[in-house]
Every structure is written in C-alpha cells, then in structure tokens.
Amino acid sequence: MKLRMPAFPDRLRSEIDKLTAAADVSALAGDAGRLSSRYRHESGCGKRLLTEEREALAYAAVRMPATFGAVAKALDYALDAVDFVPKTVLDIGAGTGAAGWAAESLINLDSLVCLEREAVMLRLGQKLMRNSGIPVLENAVWRQADLTGGALAEEADLVLASYVLNELNAAERNKAVEKLWRAAAKMLLVIEPGTPQGYRNLLQARALLTGAGAFVAAPCPHDGICPLAAGDWCHFSCRVARSKLHRRLKNAAMGYEDEKFSYMAFVRQVPAQRTARIIRPPVAGKAGIELTLCTTGGIVRKVVKKGSPEYAEIRKKEWGRTDGMSAPAR
Fold this sequence. Notes:
Layout: H1 10-20, H2 25-41, H3 53-80, E1 88-92, H4 98-106, E2 111-116, H5 119-130, H6 135-138, E3 141-144, E4 156-162, H7 170-183, E5 184-193, H8 196-211, E6 215-218, E7 236-241, H9 244-250, E8 256-267, E9 277-278, E10 283-284, E11 288-295, E12 298-305, H10 311-314
Parallel strand pairs: 1-2, 1-4, 2-3, 4-5
Antiparallel strand pairs: 5-8, 6-8, 7-8, 9-11, 10-11, 11-12
Helix pairs in contact: 1-3, 2-3, 2-9, 3-4, 7-8
C-alpha cells in the first residue's frame, strides 16, 4: 500500500535537473513555449508534436510534473471505486514516463510496460526510469509503438492513456479506444486535458465502450447519458509544485500551477462503489458547505449545514471525491 496523492518524486526531479544542467536554458525555454503552443493549437490534427532531443528534455521539465499529478489524482479516484488493485500496468503514449511513475507511486506494481511513438521521448523516459532506484521502474519494458498502427501485443490489468486521444484526429480515436480497451484486463484509465474538447473526447470513448459492455468506475456514478448541460464539461484540478527550472522555462512567478484535467476509468465488472461525486469546488459559507454533485438522478446541489452529523466529514472533502464516507485504505 502506498501513500495517497504522492508528490512529484524528488529523485525524478533531480535527474531532470541534472540532464538540463548542461543545456542552454534560453533555448529550452523557447522549446517549452513552442511545445505549449503546438499542444494548444495543433492537438487533434494527427500531427507529430515532438521529435527533437532538446524538445523532449523541455517537455520533461515542464510537462512531467503536471502529467504525474493528473494521472496520480485520476488513478487515486478510480481505485476508490473498485475492489481490486491492479498489479500490471501498460502505459500507452508514455511520453517520458510520467504516468508510469504516478502508478508506481500509488500501487505496488509487479510490472510496467511503456509504449511510445517518438524515439526521443522513449529514450529519455527509459533513462529517467533506469536511474530511479526503483526496481519496477528500472526493469520497465519500453517499446516504440504507434497507437494508430497495428494491434497491440501487450495486455495488463491497468491500461493508462494520458493525453493521448487529444493527439489523434477524429477518424483515429474510435479505433484507438477499441485497442486500448482490448488491452485492459481490468481497467482502462483515460486522462485528457480539462477542456471542452478533452471532455468531448472522453464522452465519445464513453459511448463506444459502454455500448460494448464496459462500465464507468469514475468519475461518473452511472453509465447513462451525461447530465451536464450543453456547453458544460466535467473536469478536475491538481496543484503542481514548480521547481526553479520549471519557473524559468515558463517565465512564471508563482511556485505552483494548477493542472486541469478530465478523465474516465472503464472496468469490466460493475464497480464496487457508485456514489455521488463532487464535480465542482465545494463552496463554504456561513450556513455550511454547498456541494455540486453528479448523482444517479442527475446534477444535484446540496447544502450541508454546520452542526449537522455529516458536516465534519464533508468539510474534509475535496473537488473530485465522492460525498460518501472516506474510501478504504489500499
């Protein structure tokens, strides 16, 4: 069993800092800015967004902490809803390995396989894991593979696909989702940017997979049609600490950033827990705490008054958690 919501690993941050020490910081900052622009404006067009060694290093410095945080939080939420703990993980579109590090930080894994299309990302991710001092990461299998290519040969208890669907064009997404699901023995966890388009990608995957017999473990407490009004979208947030290098590369004054993400976890059996989920930040007032909940009956706004039996428990709840009792320890 691991601690809940781990911080970005010191060993990983130190290794990234070591690799960037000899690099031209101004050039890395330029790479980081161009990468951010590409991911904002060119994602979903089927374009290759990163192909150079220095770009991979810039990506690791500015995007690995946010990806680690989003995957760790989404996986923590998803595991709360099921009665099993996956032991094998397949990370598809692994990038430089942030999702694998996040999974290892939460679960005592037996094995990890990372598939990545871009050779420069694969080489850097493999190097970071091999210097981790963590056996399952040091022994992780890395293979160059394109999700839009042939069938996936690998299978695992848990398949991770973080920020992958947004890199595909519309014609590629359904085929990719089908491949991801076939590879998942127990759970498929898909994380996308916390944007309207990211959520639309997830709804498309949801419709396809629930139609094929999958169940949604999280964040939805049901498999029915999303009850959110048109133009609204379901997303969550994690706060990510920035290192000095991170701040320099992003020309940022704040020592942290908030990563908005959307996610869905799909499983092959009815989830063990399906309770209302807090889908907006709780609002504390003089009378109590107001919650916006997604329930089996739709979107509900609930005020928990001060002095009520459940107030002490609810005031500890965060955006993204269920409103029931605390989840059991793993």
